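Morning - s-citryldethia Coenzyme A inputs below, output right after.
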Amino acid sequence: MSETVQIIIEGKEYEFPVVEGSEQEKAIDISKLRAQTGYITLDYGFKNTGSTKSAITYLDGENGILRYRGYSIEELAEKASFVEVAFLLIYGELPNKKQLDYFQDSITQHTLVHENMKRFFEAFPQGAHPMGMLSSMISSLSTFYPESQNPDRSVVDIEKTIHRLIAKLPTLAAQAYKHNMGHPTVYPSNDLGYCGNFLKMMFSLPTEDYEVDPVVESAINKLLILHADHEQNCSTSTVRVVGSSQANLYSSVSAGIAALWGPLHGGANQAVIEMLESIREDGGDLQKWIDKAKDKNDSFRLMGFGHRVYKNFDPRARIIKKAADEVLEQLGVDDPVLDIAKKLEQVALNDSYFVERGLYPNVDFYSGIIYRALNIPTDMFTVMFALGRLPGWIAQWKEMVENREPIGRPRQVFTGSNERSFVGLSDRD
Ligand code: SDX
């Protein structure tokens, strides 16, 4: 007999089933609430609302646990390649050698983008934010591959679209960077791995070929893995809802890129560095900025701090903080902003305002410091987040499609005017 809960509404008792997940998380299934009671629930920001059942990523916010398909983020960040993790998220298992070779080869075959897309970049103003360019470019991929628009979504079309998307995102990301640098496009090098190829497309010049630095390549690999998925976050929920209308994968991911851009979400990694540089330019008075973050009359927030789920620590932030020390030492980079970040973390974590609210450094707090050391410009930081999150978006979209989930369409509580008659222009005040 499955567990149920009783809800009493206007003196009448209603019973609803309880759903229990594989990690003993429990939910009340209210899919029949309105039909049985006429009531809906109201939950701003869906803080207490599950939108789906998913087998992809497990988070435990209280204990700082993050697992992709059951594997801990700590193990994957240390032992896996990003392409292996992408395969794991999308297909559910770590690939064997044959599967990994096929996946890698297929991605390599699709790294080029249609030459017409160069003209799109030429139309953007110099200095256009790369996230705006990337979201447009990814959506326009659907026009070059119309079979991706097929609502019946055959397995073959989905597979090809997935491989094309994973292959082309780095190419388009690097092109956005080159557009703003005023440099010519660098074409993909099929003899390099996923991260090395991206670095070469970013940093090669007609005058000088970029030699892939293994330290940099390893850091990028780790950072992409750490960002690869995070269950039903804002941008992933966006991808799922857009895809639930039978929109194609390119358009769904384009919408996810737009959602990720926001400074409260993936845009925070750029906002953190801008905040740390402001603190440095302002003389480094950390307490002044901590007090601003606590002041309800001040819109300033400590960027890179706090999380909807992690109310203790974000395991990714711990890994990135350690990696920041290692990468900067290996590259011989001395970044005063890293020292400010560490001191700011200490001051905040000894302040009751942050401790009482469970506000700890999140994935975005230290990642920008590594990107700076790798000579990636600040406005490309969220693009790096998107590169990492792509396989998670794809996996979640694919799970939604395979589970034939209904179109996402929340209800509302109406608070506007009651019925009233039309008033002619001459009769209005
Ligand atoms: C990402 O969801 C995911 O999984 C996201 C992500 C992923 O991998 O996809 O992990 C990536 O988006 C990480 C978060 C990056 N964003 C930032 O670093 C921006 C700064 N942080 C926030 O604005 C905030 O903490 C959020 C958006 C991350 C979470 O916001 P919530 O869960 O809606 O919490 P809230 O805004 O209701 O805050 C609760 C309290 C409030 O104070 P009180 O009203 O209780 O007095 O905490 C305060 C907030 O004012 N608060 C902060 C704060 N974050 C929350 N106060 C100062 N500085 C902050 N950063």
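Note: The radius of gyration is 23 Å.

O.
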